[in-house]
Amino acid sequence: MPDGGIREDFPHVAHTLDAAIKAGEMRPLILVGIENTERRRDVTGPTEVETDRKIAPRVGGSAAFRRFIQDELMPEIGKRYRVTDETAVIGESLAGLFIVETFFLQPELFDTYIALSPSLWWNGEELVKKAGERLKAKPDLRKTLYLSSASDDVSAESARLEEALRANAPAGLKWQYKPRPDLRHDNIYRSASPQVLRELFPPVK
């Protein structure tokens, strides 16, 4: 999980998993929190929109961040712990943007993608606008994608991405979009993730 430092979102996600696994509501998982160094650099892709570039001194480093996860982090976790081939990623806001971008550009990196209120406005909604053609280009895609949005200005982009998925998703893609107008951008992660994680990772029967 991006935003995975002790002072970020790691504690509440770890608590959710611990409680759910102990209660038999989820299968055992290893949670890997990635603490941010330069968050807005690492979780954003390139942009042609000048106002996007004003959010941080450096942006557009998502490809390098993915290389770190694939080439350094995942192999190290595999050396240290008993792991299976199943992988997943979860994040909110700009981290959600990173997750959707990774799903479209490097879908083989994870099996399950969970993006809560992703900042799909980035680069003039490039991910939304190209979603249809990218989905059509991967007819054999077999992944899981979960999207949600709160009652704020990023929900419209998520709804447009849902339209693209509804029209173009390959048969092997398991996807769902659940708008949460009862939640806000600043509380959707803590409020929605416990239910979402239990739903997507039920105990093995």
How is this structure best described in words?
It is a single chain. The protein is α/β, with parallel strands linked by helices. The protein has a single domain (10-200), classed as Rossmann fold, CATH 3.40.50. The protein has 8 helices and 4 strands. The chain has a 4-stranded parallel sheet, with helices on both faces. Strand 1, helix 4 and strand 2 (112-116) form a beta-alpha-beta unit. The mean pLDDT is 96.
Describe how the helices and strands are arranged.
Layout: H1 10-22, H2 39-42, H3 62-80, E1 88-92, H4 94-105, E2 112-116, H5 122-129, H6 131-136, E3 144-150, H7 155-168, E4 174-180, H8 188-200
CATH fold call: Rossmann fold
Largest sheet: 4 strands, parallel
End-to-end distance, in Å? Answer: 26 Å
Number of domains as seen in the coordinates: 1
Instruction: Please state how the strands of the largest beta sheet are arranged side by side.
Output: 1-2-3-4
- What's the overall geometry? globular
**Count of DSSP helices?**
8
